[in-house]
């Protein structure tokens, strides 16, 4: 049974109607208040939110982390609830697709356990707050020199884990599974996009102009964070004699405009207008690295059986990364794209079983009805 998307192009909320603009405005405003409430009206907005919104989570915050509730605890709680609630919706919608069930359960587990409960419990036990599902370059501060000095003690072991995940686990896992092991199974950004954002995936821009823009933005952002990290280390090793305040100012600029504005305010606030993977597609430096590894080294690909394709266009329509999947199917070409996150929705919505997600010698056939593993 193909997931029901009837009427998605005609509903105001999912076709850039009035409801969509209203939701986009509300989400954007929420992000602005959470991220920058202390800078608005001399901090009055932050004080109001603390008294009337964040305070409702006081008992939960004290129980989980032994601290008063603030905007970041509120944000993490709201984010996790959204992933769990809309994840349950995904499980129902794709209940006949085993791959989607396992993948959705994975992002729910990682968000709840590794991005919410564990970091807060670490704080409760007087340890550094650490998010095990994020690491450099998506979480660049984990490799900044002053972070290592600040963490100290047992926190250094967490940072070593982050470095291991960035430079050892990432290439190995991507070689075997493609970028989907992270972007569609672990990452909280992708988790929100594939749960709360599922209703808006068809809004992603499929034009060649969008593809060119994608390449023009995502790789320079990766280059920028590499430069920022290198400059910070050079400055640290030379006691600030080389760059002075410049490297720190550049890191702060990156954190504000890329980390907050792009990935947060725009990345989520514009779901109802531009689709769900805006940040992942156009800005995420982690996605850029994984994409390059996927194209050059990985066994992962989506194979096509073009002889069965009826050109319905479902695969292209519901590709959240804006890939024209149908064109590959019609030309009987394997899909090996840096931007593909291996979410498998193209396979799930195909009425003819044309698309298969495969990893090298170990073939994983993911259709609407089953997962079949065979050896080539």
Automatic annotation (TrEMBL):
PROSITE patterns in the cross-refs: 4FE4S_FER_1 (PS00198), 4FE4S_FER_2 (PS51379)
Gene Ontology molecular function, alphabetical: 4 iron, 4 sulfur cluster binding; metal ion binding
Keywords: 4Fe-4S, Electron transport, Iron, Iron-sulfur, Membrane, Metal-binding, Transmembrane, Transmembrane helix, Transport
Coiled-coil stretches: none
Statement: the UniProt record of this protein carries the keyword Cell wall biogenesis/degradation: no
Domain of life, per lineage: Bacteria
SUPFAM superfamilies in UniProt: 4Fe-4S ferredoxins
One Pfam family, short name: Fer4_5
4Fe-4S ferredoxin-type domain residues: 300-328, 331-360
Residue spans crossing the bilayer: 18-37, 72-92, 104-125, 156-177, 216-234, 254-274
GO cellular component terms attached to this protein's record: plasma membrane
Name of the protein in its database record: 4Fe-4S ferredoxin iron-sulfur binding domain-containing protein
């Amino acid at each position: 049974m193909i997931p029901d998307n009837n009427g998605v192009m005609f509903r105001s909320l999912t076709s850039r109607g009035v409801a969509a603009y209203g939701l986009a405005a509300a989400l954007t405003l929420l992000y602005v208040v959470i991220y920058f409430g202390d800078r608005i009206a001399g901090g009055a907005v932050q004080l109001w939110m603390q008294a009337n919104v964040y305070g409702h989570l006081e008992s939960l915050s004290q129980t989980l982390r032994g601290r008063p509730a603030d905007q970041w605890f509120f944000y993490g709680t709201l984010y996790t609830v959204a992933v769990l609630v809309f994840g349950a919706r995904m499980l129902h919608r794709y209940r006949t697709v085993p791959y989607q069930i396992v993948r959705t359960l994975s992002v729910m587990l990682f968000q709840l356990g590794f991005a919410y409960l564990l970091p807060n419990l670490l704080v409760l036990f007087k340890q550094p707050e650490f998010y095990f599902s994020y690491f450099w370059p998506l979480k660049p501060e984990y490799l900044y020199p002053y972070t290592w000095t600040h963490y100290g003690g047992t926190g250094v072991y967490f940072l070593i884990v982050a470095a291991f995940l960035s430079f050892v686990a990432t290439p190995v896992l991507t070689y075997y599974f493609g970028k989907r092991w992270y972007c569609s199974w672990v990452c909280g950004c992708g988790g929100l996009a594939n749960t709360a954002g599922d209703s808006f995936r068809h809004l992603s821009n499929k034009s060649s102009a969008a593809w060119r823009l994608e390449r023009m933005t995502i790789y320079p952002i990766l280059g920028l964070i590499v430069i920022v990290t290198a400059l910070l280390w050079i400055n640290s090793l030379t006691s600030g004699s080389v760059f002075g305040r410049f490297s720190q100012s550049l890191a702060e600029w990156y954190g504000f405009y890329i980390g907050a504005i792009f990935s947060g305010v725009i990345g989520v606030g514009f779901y109802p207008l531009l689709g769900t993977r805006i940040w992942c597609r156009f800005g995420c430096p982690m996605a850029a690295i994984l994409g390059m590894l996927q194209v050059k080294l990985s066994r992962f690909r989506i194979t096509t059986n073009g002889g069965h394709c009826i050109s319905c266009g479902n695969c292209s329509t519901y590709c959240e990364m804006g890939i024209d999947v149908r064109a590959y199917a019609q030309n009987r070409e394997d899909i090996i794209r840096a931007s593909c996150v291996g979410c498998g929705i193209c396979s799930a919505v195909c009425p003819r079983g044309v698309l298969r997600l495969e990893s090298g010698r170990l073939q994983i056939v993911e259709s609407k009805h089953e997962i079949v593993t065979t050896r080539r």
